[in-house]
Amino acid sequence: MAVTTNTLPENSTPLPGPTANRQDLPIRSRLTALNAFLLSGLTLWLGLVTLNNVDDFGTNKALISSMITMGDLKGDPVRGNGLEWRALPEAMATPALIGVIVYEVLAVALLAWAATAMWRRARGETVSINTTQRANYALAGFMGLFFLFLCGGMFYGYWIYIGAAQQVHFTGLMIGLLTTVLVNLPSVTGAQREQ
After folding, report:
1. For residue 115, which of 189, 31, 43 has the smallest C-alpha distance?
2. Which segments of the chain does DSSP mark as H helices, in order?
3. What are the residues whose beta carbons fall under 8 Å from the beta carbon of 43, sequence distance 6 or more?
């Protein structure tokens, strides 16, 4: 099969020729099902993270409290002394965790919306570029969560004592970026056409 480049409008119809009866051709590729699977996996993973944050509220509240009060840094005579003015009272841990959970619920909803659209594209039920746009919105929300964690953690100096958490957040960001690249490849978005 040869691959040629054709830019197709959003409400495109197949070009005439041997593939004219295959209306799904511009939007189907070997990567579309993989992208649908990846988006579904991210939805499930972040959904479980959110469920764990709700089910184990006390542990997560203690972790956020430890970070925003900067207790470990205050107890260290050398490291982080210049950052301690940024500390917040422990009472802010509960609203912070509730905010994180609300954000996660919204991100899970966006990911589920995008995954559903991508599965529809993989089955040839839709030819719209809106599927890619939905995935980009969802992945922006997903990566925004990890940017929030990384920037908030940097502000409170959590990298000094909680390096493992920082690594998880950085890994989540990288997974989001790689998924975004895959979702936006021309063979997935319909910018290329197999003949």
Report:
1. 43
2. 30-55, 57-69, 71-75, 93-122, 130-155, 163-183, 186-189
3. 108, 111, 112, 115
Q: Which residues of the chain have pLDDT under 50?
A: 1-9, 12-22, 24-27, 192-195
Residue 144's pLDDT is what? 96
- Determine the Cα–Cα distance for residues 23 and 10; give it in Å rounded to an integer: 13
Residue labelled with tokens 């895959």: 182
Burial 40-51 (b: 16+ CB within 10 A, else e): bebbeebbebbe
Query: Which residues is 5 bridged to in the sheet?
Result: 192
| Region for residue 124 given its phi and psi (left: phi exceeds 0; alpha: psi -120 to 50; beta: otherwise) | left
User: How much is the pTM?
Assistant: 0.78
pLDDT, one tens digit per residue, over 5-16 is 444 445 544 444
DSSP assignment, residue 15?
P
Residue type, 49: V
Instruction: Say which residues have a Cβ less than 8 Å from residue 50's Cβ, sequence separation at least 6.
Output: 101, 104, 105, 108
Whether 188 contacts 182, CB under 8 Å: yes
Q: Is 95 exposed, middle or buried (0-12, 13-18, 19+ CB in 10 A)?
A: exposed
- How many CA atoms, within 13 angstroms, populate the side-chain half-sphere of residue 190? 25
